[in-house]
Amino acid sequence: VGAVVATRRMLDDPRTRRLAVEFACQWLGIRGFDADDGKNEKLYPQFEKLRGAMYEESVRFFEDLFRNDGSILGLLNADYAFLNEPLAKHYGIEGVTGGWQRVEGTQAKGRGGILGMATVLAKQSGASRTSPILRGNWVSETLLGERLPKPPANVPDLPELVPAGLTARQLIEKHSSVEACAKCHARIDPYGFALEQYDAIGRLRPNPMNTKTKLVDGKA
Question: Which of 95, 137, 178, 180 is most exposed, with minimal Cβ within 10 Å?
Answer without folding.
Answer: 95
